[in-house]
């Protein structure tokens, strides 16, 4: 009961934008003929080129959500093994070789790095996934390395080594499982950060066409007519904010539940 109360608000907030984003393209149906820009002929009116705002909202969330989740998964798949390897290598030079290039990436502001990488990459969702994953990679690797260093210094690791356990079994079997709580606590922040980067990229026109059905693009392209047709800006903006807040609340509730269970 108590855990449900912790997860409830986050899950409730998260369910709305997720349902709209994932089921929206099937619910949108065939596109309606374009009307007058910033008109009021439909439930939520029309956007800057006369398209139905409600239809664009249903079509515009999948890219933001899928790209952010895919980029987060890719960052963890690359960064976690890298951090564990750096922590368990036992060789200072190899640790430096693995971590120092990532420190250079950390020194560059994420928005600037996003623009620089996007300028050299072809447009599309897949390059955007890789770009956002690369931006998140240094922080994921650093957090994984810090967590693995503490775990690798425990007496249990020495006992496993004396018992003849392989390095792979110690790293994946013990260190990996012991890091789950730390990685779970970081996951909520990381997904929200990826969501911010994807929405920022779409808002700036990086990786997506200027008239794409995308929540962030809708906010950018319709903000000049906000006082004529506010729903074209407010609805996608509220969905992005609700998605971010819901993710944070949900992962915070999961983290607290795991701490109490431990």
Automatic annotation (TrEMBL):
Organism: Streptosporangium canum
UniProt membrane topology term: Multi-pass membrane protein
Record flagged with keyword Transmembrane helix: yes
Ranges of residues in domain ABC transmembrane type-1: 61-251
Protein name: Peptide/nickel transport system permease protein
Domain of life of the organism encoding this protein: Bacteria
Keywords: Cell membrane, Membrane, Transmembrane, Transmembrane helix, Transport
A biological process term (GO) from this entry: transmembrane transport
Coiled-coil region(s): none
Subcellular localization, as worded in the UniProt entry: Cell membrane
InterPro entries xrefs: BP-dependent_transpt_permease (IPR050366), MetI-like (IPR000515), MetI-like_sf (IPR035906)
Bilayer-spanning residue ranges: 64-90, 102-119, 125-144, 187-208, 228-251
The keyword Transport is assigned to this record: yes
PANTHER family reported in the protein's UniProt record: OLIGOPEPTIDE TRANSPORT SYSTEM PERMEASE PROTEIN APPC, PEPTIDE ABC TRANSPORTER PERMEASE PROTEIN
Cellular component aspect of the GO annotation: plasma membrane
Recorded family membership: Belongs to the binding-protein-dependent transport system permease family.
């Amino acid at each position: 009961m108590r855990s449900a109360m912790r997860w409830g608000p986050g899950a409730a907030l998260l369910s709305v934008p997720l349902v709209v984003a994932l089921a929206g393209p099937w619910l949108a149906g065939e596109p309606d003929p374009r009307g007058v820009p910033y008109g009021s002929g439909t439930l939520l009116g029309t956007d800057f080129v006369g398209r139905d705002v409600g239809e664009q909202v249903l079509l515009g969330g999948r890219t933001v959500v899928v790209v952010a989740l895919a980029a987060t998964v890719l960052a963890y798949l690359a960064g976690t093994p890298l951090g564990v390897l750096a922590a368990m290598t036992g060789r200072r030079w190899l640790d430096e070789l693995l971590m120092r290039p990532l420190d250079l990436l950390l020194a560059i502001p994420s928005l600037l790095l996003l623009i620089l990488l996007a300028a050299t990459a072809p447009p599309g969702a897949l390059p955007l996934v890789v770009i956002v994953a690369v931006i998140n990679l240094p922080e994921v690797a650093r957090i994984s390395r810090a967590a693995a260093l503490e775990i690798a210094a425990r007496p249990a690791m020495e006992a496993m080594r004396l018992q003849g356990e392989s390095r792979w079994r110690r790293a994946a079997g013990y260190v990996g499982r012991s890091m789950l709580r730390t990685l779970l606590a970081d996951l909520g922040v990381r997904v929200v950060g990826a969501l911010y980067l994807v929405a920022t990229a779409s808002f700036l026109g990086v990786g997506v066409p200027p008239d794409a059905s995308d929540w962030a693009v809708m906010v950018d392209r319709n903000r000049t007519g906000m006082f004529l047709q506010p729903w074209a800006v407010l609805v996608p903006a509220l969905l992005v904010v609700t998605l971010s807040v819901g993710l944070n609340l949900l992962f915070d509730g999961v983290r607290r539940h795991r701490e109490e269970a431990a």
